[in-house]
Amino acid sequence: MAKYVFKRVIYMILTLFLIASFTFSLMKMLPGSPISTSSKLTPNQLAAVEAKYGLDKPLPVQYGIYMKNMVKLDFGTSFQFKEASVTELIINRAGPSFILGIQALILGTIGGIILGMIAALRQNTAWDYGSTLIAIFGISIPSFVFASLLQYWIGVKGGFLPVGLWENGWKSSILPTIALAMGPLATSARFIRTEMIEVLGTDYITLAKAKGASGIEIAFKHAFRNALIPLITVMGPLAAGLVTGSLVVEQIFAIPGIGEQFVKAINVSDYSVIMGTTMFFSVLLILVIFIVDILYGIVDPRIRLAGGNKQ
Amino acid sequence: MEKILEVENLELSFHTFAGEVKAIRGVNFDLKKGETLAIVGESGSGKSVTTKAIMRLLPESSSEFKNGQILFDGKDLTKLTDKEMQKIRGKDISMIFQDPMTSLNPTMTIGKQIMEPILKHQKLSKIEAQKMAIYLLQLVGMPQPEQRIKQYPHQFSGGQRQRIVIAIALACNPKILIADEPTTALDVTIQAQILELMKDLQKKIDTSIIFITHDLGVVANVADRVAVMYSGKIVEIGTVDEIFYNPQHPYTWGLLSSMPSLDVQEAKLYAIPGTPPDLLDPPKGDSFALRSEYAMQIDLEEIPPFFKVSDTHYAATWLLHPDAPEVTPPATIIERMKRFPSSRYYKGANGGATK
């Protein structure tokens, strides 16, 4: 196990290095620079500013400096917010995003599992159709539409929850979390339903029945764990979807999260913030995938991790 | 001998999109205490469905008992509620399935899987149940059971998994053990080992066994009595000797002729022509008539009743009717009948007494 984790960490570092290099070159390929948007500068002033931020140096040198600083977790200073360190900016902004992401992931998967289980165990009944309907809505309605609808109906018309911003504590997070969770909820509900139905038709379920197990025992003791395995596989992509989803949802709800800052940074070519945020998201995703792989081994004994304890 | 199970005129249908499939069309048999009854027949003849019906393991949404009863312990199993049935399954009646590769839960240790019916049906503590599981694994010939109960199914070979499935089936000392083609999915050497184990267990425990197979070689090995099934009906039932050496139904003749044998040197193995009838719309008379070279006019019109051959031997063929014409069974069957001196065909073939 330790050997496996060690190997995975090496790979993770390698992946991050590649992502950093790739983002760096992509960004440099974009037309314009952080300074070019404010066009009131004379050529002399421009050169002075470029020199200050090291933008006058040849690209390989810029890349070298950048990578060196990144190892020290220093992503430079923001261009748009005077002299603010990117690392600090991210840390200050990560809180709301993190809360939203985690809440949405929990609500999405657990809600999806419950919905999927109900659909599978009450196959071809009103319960099943209802859950299918919710899932279809969840998949086909984009999160931003859903977010606006929630804002309007619950926030404005109903008035029991804040329409936006991050000023009412946990209450502020409810609507964005729901908007964000719909996608994962729908996906996991469909997955669990399909898998449960398939698992319930397997021979080992018949054997469990032949042992005298009751319906509940069969569903939860025997079928559930096996139906969970494919869902774990899509947890990685689901989490990735949450990150991109949060970019939009944070904008709509005007939540001071990373996503909102990220979009702003792209608009003004704030290189250091873009890079820093990209790296932050990458680390997050890679960690999620790593956790998913570990979970896999726990749920499915057939997937023994390489170098793991063979019994 | 005491009857432990009586299946009376059982009729069962499946409801499909294509219509009603009459999978079991009036099956009668009984099982005596301690005996092994083999049910043989080709795929789709209803042998597995019959036993799954006894266990009530068929999907309730699509299957329906049309008629008849299954008497066990004074109760009609077709009428029991799910809850009552759960108390019987795994305790009084248990089952061994065909494919050991898929019949164990891949995410549960085999110890837990063996202990499950023990904990469910017997008042034992976990530790006692574990001891019992270890004992059962020993019984089915699994080496190092103490370590192996902590392992998962994928860590066992196919033959070992079938031993585990057998251990699960035996966990509560069932009164009836149903073995649904327990050797079909195994390769030949392992088949022999599992059969050896089953025969060994037959001696050790006093459980009655229903053994489903399409392998007549296996039948000769393990069974006391044999029921031959065809298109949802039992067409012939008798002791092993009666079925093997004095078969009466043309379908049984066909089955026995298509069995490879070491002493009959023929260039080509016999195969029954045609395919089994469509049970969406079963034929009117004897369902085997269309494939049988011995079919008579009445076979196409009326379902033959059971004719008594001996106290233990019955066959549903019009050939046994007193008015039926004399026929000569296939040569290989006559060869078999020579070992059964009282066979009417054998005497007939010798030019002896005819009816």
Automatic annotation (TrEMBL), chain A:
Return the SUPFAM superfamilies for the record.
MetI-like
- Localized where? Cell membrane
The transmembrane segments are: 9-27, 98-121, 133-154, 174-192, 228-253, 273-296
InterPro entries in the record, alphabetically?
BPD_transp_1_N (IPR045621), MetI-like (IPR000515), MetI-like_sf (IPR035906)
Topology in the lipid bilayer = Multi-pass membrane protein
Known PANTHER family for this protein? DIPEPTIDE TRANSPORT SYSTEM PERMEASE PROTEIN DPPB-RELATED
Instruction: Please identify the protein, giving its name as recorded.
Output: ABC transporter permease
Q: What species was this sequence derived from?
A: Viridibacillus soli
Source lineage: Bacteria, Bacillati, Bacillota, Bacilli, Bacillales
UniProtKB/TrEMBL annotation, chain B:
Record localization: Cell membrane
Which CDD domains does the entry link to?
A: ABC_NikE_OppD_transporters
ABC transporter domain segment(s) = 5-256
Top-rank taxon: Bacteria
- Which membrane topology term applies here? Peripheral membrane protein
GO MF terms on file? ATP binding
Q: Which SMART domains match?
A: AAA
Q: Which UniProt keywords apply?
A: ATP-binding, Cell membrane, Membrane, Nucleotide-binding, Transport
PANTHER family in UniProt: DIPEPTIDE TRANSPORT ATP-BINDING PROTEIN DPPD (PTHR43297:SF2), OLIGOPEPTIDE TRANSPORT ATP-BINDING PROTEIN APPD (PTHR43297)
Entry's family note: Belongs to the ABC transporter superfamily.
This chain's protein is named ABC transporter ATP-binding protein
